[in-house]
Write a structure and sequence with these properties.
- The chain is of the alpha/beta class.
- It is built from 16 helices and 17 strands.
- Strand 11, helix 7 (216-228) and strand 12 (232-237) form a beta-alpha-beta unit.
- Helix 4 packs across helix 11 (328-344).
- Bound molecules: (2S)-2-hydroxybutanedioic acid.
- (2S)-2-hydroxybutanedioic acid (LMR) binds next to loops.
Amino acid sequence: MASAILSLTSASIATSRPLIENLKVNSKLGSSSQTTFLGKDYIKTKVIGSWHLTSMTVAVEVSRFNDITMAPPDPILGVSEAFKADDHEMKLNLGVGAYRTEDLQPYVLNVVKKAENLMLEREITKRNWVSAAFAAALIERYFPGSKVLISSPTWGNHKNIFNDAGVPWSEYRYYDPKTVGLDFDGMIADIKAAPEGTFVLLHGCAHNPTGIDPTPEQWERIADVIQEKSHIPFFDVAYQGFASGSLDKDASSVRLFAARGMELLIAQSYSKNLGLYAERIGAINVVCSTSEVAKGKEQYHGSSVPEELCAEKEFVAKHGSTCLVKPVSLQVKSQLKRIARPMYSNPPIHGARIVANVVGNSDLFNEWKEEMELMAGRIMSVRKKLYDSLSAKDNSGKDWSFILKQIGMFSFTGLNKAQTENMTSKWHVYMTKDGRISLAGLSSAKCEYLADAIIDSFHNVS
Ligand code: LMR
């Protein structure tokens, strides 16, 4: 085991408070030859006059970090680590929801390359600026005692986010294993039963991990119940564009709620739809009700109207340049900034600039829409091919059509833990233990192989 040699006179010791505390205790004991440190014989203390001179070499054989146990592998990212360690030629990583090309390579969108070139041309300096953990921190701080209702199942990281923020959560029914579809009645009943003012986490589109979304009519009903109960909708929009291939269509659930004038939290990610995974670029949007604006907490007159407000044309049109009110949205924004500051001080700007260049330039924006259709189209085509292969190979009469009804990057296969383990140990197909496969990690060429693996695991493992 590694051991560290520490010397009392070394400046480096000052960085270790527990060690100093221990040494003080030893000094105060004042014994002429004290030899105890963390249960081992490491320190020799001599008393000379009123001074305790400690000449010592401390070899820390038992680390102070010893009690920190091994964290379990992440249910999603851990799958990729296991995949990397496998050298089988047919191996397939269907664990993480990250877009891959037909050659199963990561895809850098053309619009991203163009946006980066534009940034280089304009020599934009790297400056720094903000996503779901924020919303959790905001809830914890300003809605103490409030609960978040999350779907069962949901993205593996949602529970961690709320646990770490100290925000209590419980689940609403979502997936019905009998139909491999949406348990709509269960979902509505659980949202209704939650105490008023509960935050209801909804997946804006392409539900992760099930790939099952409510219909437009069902979204209306969900909005009705949330409104009736004065709940606060909290959208997680991580796959915009991947459900239908259209960024606009995939925004329809959020827009439906916004059009009703409801206050919303929207956590949005560009990791998947712009392939900016490692840039960790997203946005937290808090839509505040305009009727809540006139709190009169601060007064702005003429030139003292903050620049941010002047830029908001709607605000100025409504209140004039001499305004006596401060919008709640600015208060919220100021608090979000405050939450961000101790978390990471200055967030990286590079990804944010790429997004701003793509959405802010009509040519690039239109090209993004085309690339989005292309990526979503490739996933739809392997989904169809997988269904065809399963239907052609499986003679048991099992209905695999749920695969076609699911949308987005994922398919929830209904395989149980033992069956998913068989997929990996026997077939080298890596997937999450809940039975989810990411179709973005599948190529047409490997559909038949995957179908064989699924049929074997489904019928031969219980
Ligand atoms: C997934 O669910 O696979 C993606 O959202 C990637 C991730 O970070 O979990």
